[in-house]
Amino acid sequence: MTERVVLAYSGGLDTSVAIGWIAEETGAEVVAVAIDCGQGGEDLDVVRRRALDCGAVEAVVADARDEFATEYCVPALQANALYMDRYPLVSALSRPLIVKHLADAARYHGATMVAHGCTGKGNDQVRFEAGLAALFPELRVLAPVRDSGMTRDRAIAFAEDRGLPIDVSRKSPYSIDQNLFGRAVETGFLEDIWNGPIEDLYDYTQDPAQESGPDELVITFTAGVPTAVDGRELTPLQAMEEMNRRAGAQGIGRVDMVEDRLVGIKSREVYEAPGAIALITAHQELENVTVERELARYKRGVDQRWGELVYDGLWFSPLKDALQTFVTEANKNVTGDIRMVLHGGRAVVTGRRSEASLYDYGLATYDTGDTYDQSLARGFIDVFGMPAKIAHLRDQRRTR
């Protein structure tokens, strides 16, 4: 019986060429799997037809936008996930979703191998292969671009020699990955980290320097999940789409950074994630109102570790699962409304309200009606500062 390979298929040059390359090198049949994570672009039916025309015995396309929003984007919002305090995990979030569909397709089609189009320099190879090892460890993994030295020139020549239906005449200087949560741009002139980004790089966001009036809105969260904008109930997918549109129109969510890749190198990346940045900003502020101090302090460390695990491709790890349970529990009271003004590249919180609020006006006010017993402060300070005081006195004695 002929072996089958399930290929993570994007419809672009590398993965289209990989269909024929895998068939010639291994003799296996290729099942192409394309996942819609909200990246836009070509219709998936067109992508499916291209895969078949390039030699796939079957092509599977899946609209996973709702799944991506609910099961991947929402947990990232609840964890305020920003790798290195800046990057909202645009690509890292979609990879475990794709891996899950690849594993499901491999079981359904009786495949013994899975293939991807990642290079040997990036994080995605780890995300795909570590995820597959967790979900379907019996599968072998092929990485034609990484393991065969398939350069772009060789891929173009392969496509031309075999008459594959791929437009290879236009070469973008950038490598671009995008989905519902945001957009990532790298390579080209950006590899010189002294070069500033140009406006042509951006697609999800308008130039924040352009004149436009401010946009005020109210975002409603229920247990840390965005459930309405301006009083209109929305699914997580609809909330992300709405915030991408409105925050993007104000130039919010642009990030230009040098980040530490898992594979040991530093890489310059330009991101735009308007909805993600606006929603994380709103969520963080609602947490400030509704989450108890010690829980909030501890959660900040959990949030950072959660983001690192997802960035490193360990979505399906026991530690990430355990941290997710904590994050979900910590969000149970993060319910209420945040008013924001979107303008000039910034999302600024201007109001908060919640029935689960821990803010007590009587304790906080400095005016008449203050219920805080200030006479308790002196004794508290004496006790709180005692360990440092005792240690300081000890050190003075030892230096005499």
TrEMBL record:
CDD domains named among the record's database cross-references: ASS
Major subcellular site: cytoplasm
Pathway named in the protein's UniProt entry: Amino-acid biosynthesis; L-arginine biosynthesis; L-arginine from L-ornithine and carbamoyl phosphate: step 2/3
InterPro entries, sorted: Arginosuc_syn_C (IPR048268), Arginosuc_syn_N (IPR048267), Arginosuc_synth (IPR001518), Arginosuc_synth_CS (IPR018223), Arginosuc_synth_type_1_subfam (IPR023434), AS_cat/multimer_dom_body (IPR024074), Rossmann-like_a/b/a_fold (IPR014729)
Subcellular location: Cytoplasm
Positions of L-aspartate binding: T119, N123, D124
Domain Arginosuccinate synthase C-terminal: 174-390
Keyword tags: Amino-acid biosynthesis, Arginine biosynthesis, ATP-binding, Cytoplasm, Ligase, Nucleotide-binding
Principal EC category: ligase
Domain Arginosuccinate synthase-like N-terminal residues, every copy: 4-165
The reaction(s) this protein catalyses: L-citrulline + L-aspartate + ATP = 2-(N(omega)-L-arginino)succinate + AMP + diphosphate + H(+)
TM region positions: none
Sequence similarity: Belongs to the argininosuccinate synthase family. Type 1 subfamily.
Assembly and binders: Homotetramer.
Name the record gives this protein: Argininosuccinate synthase
